[in-house]
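fwd from M.: "can u put these together and see what the complex looks like"

so here's what she sent:
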Amino acid sequence: MVSKAESYGWVVVFATLLAFAIPWFLWGDARLAYGLPLWLWWHIGWMALASVVFWLFTKRAWGLGITTGERA
Amino acid sequence: MTTTLQLGIVVGYLLVALAIGLVAYRVTERTAEDFYLASRTFGTVVLLFTVFATLLSAFTFFGGPDTAYAFGPEWILVMGLMDGIIFAVLWYVIGYKQWLLGNQHGYVTLGEMLGDRFASTTLRALVAVVSLFWLFPYVMLQQIGAGGALAALTGGAFPFWAGATLITGFMILYVVLAGMRGIAWTDTLQGAFMLVMVWAAALWVLVAVGGIGVPNAGLTANNPEFLALGSDFYTPGRMLTFAISIAFGVAMFPQVNQRFFAASSETVLKRSFALWPVLVLLLFVPAFILGTWAQGLGLEANIGAGESILPVILAEYTPAWFAALVIAGAIAAMMSSSDSMLLSGSSYFTRDVYRPLVDSTITERREDFLGRLGVVVFAVAALGASIWAEAGAFGAMTVGSILVEIGDLAFGGFAQLALPVIVALYWRRTTRLGMLAGVLVPQLVYIGFNFLPEVAVGTLVLFSDAYLGWGISIYCMILGALVTIAVSVATTQSPKEDTALYFEGLTAD
């Protein structure tokens, strides 16, 4: 069972993953690194990070809001 | 030579798929649950790739690279947010809960799951009818695409109607025989194959042109805006509208939604969920960047006139057999999306419309037969409509832009179902009337705003397809959630509704 603080933590983590999947702070930026735009490297890193976060979620908090009920 | 080769590869693919279908037929039980869901037995690899290959459509290999060729590679970010993150979150929020409920109560379709909770055959049938309304033109699109591709491949020797009929005929044979199990097996093979091919294509082109600096130099000189994030085409509003409405739409597309039921265990769902963003990354970056490189290399394809850039760049830099393999794989991708659609379309019809409304006493065996018959009827009707449409209305338009336009409209249409479903899954006070209104109202508004001519009322333009830079589908989704909640608050649950079904006793394995 996940603590209340951790549940909120997960909500914040997921919201962050959604919010910065497009790197808004690089808007208009055309810098290249190793042949690809910097923002594309951000995308590559972000997707890899998302996988790791999702994996951690399945290990620690799977079922949150579903099998544990809203009062968890 | 190339044409023969390409046709040979397409036919070869059909035969391999048919062989797999025959093997699947031999291990299939003659029940509807097995035909539609392979009796909920999918492991991680098969589940992951069957969802993946179902998502791979003509857009992945033609529309997507064409967009990256015409406007820049930012579409990769849209796909990342859409498929990699939002869809993955929905995989958990909708998919996992659906899987638990399906496992406990034997649901095969979304409508069935909702109808049971709200004790409403009307709701069940409504969800099915709305889904079929959007699914039917989408199947037509795939037939038009495949027929057109075969005609182009053979230089017109194989006319459109013959190509579309051949492919539809094959799909009927295949789906009727193999059911979900066979489709998922070929999906797995095909998804893995295309993943390898698209990387091979990107690397091949890079080596052939002499490194990534060459296309980049061309882009810097002629299209510097392509490398910068954002443009007049890629506005934040447009990128988010696409990402959000398509992601929610995908989760409600029958062939994708139904796969949520088909996992064999919770572990399978967890693993697929965690691997999903990486799979999205691996596919879309090389596929779409090829389109942008083609621009940097000065290649030309008249996208507006229906040409696609992918065959052009492959023909320029890779051997004929390799290009043929990729193009045939792309045609196969269209087919693998359609066969899943036929199957789920048939299940929505037999299970949620025919069985509850026409004959509720049919046996498992009979429903299995009806399901297969449904596939034939659905496919033949869509084929007839495709040939008719191709002969008239769509004649002068380009395959690519039709795919993107109607395709996006269907995604937006399905997206309207998502929020009412989420509200129903997570809010105990949802009522039957709330759901009926929440499903129906946004559909009508969405269709109205897309198909009615624009009307100026004072300073306001009614029936526009975007406001303040955001697509109408987003506004309709919000409306759907609000209507569901407002009507639920204003009405009371009928005694027959079973709220506990969604909230009590849901446990893991």
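replying to her w this: Residues 394-401 of chain B have pLDDT under 50 and may be disordered.
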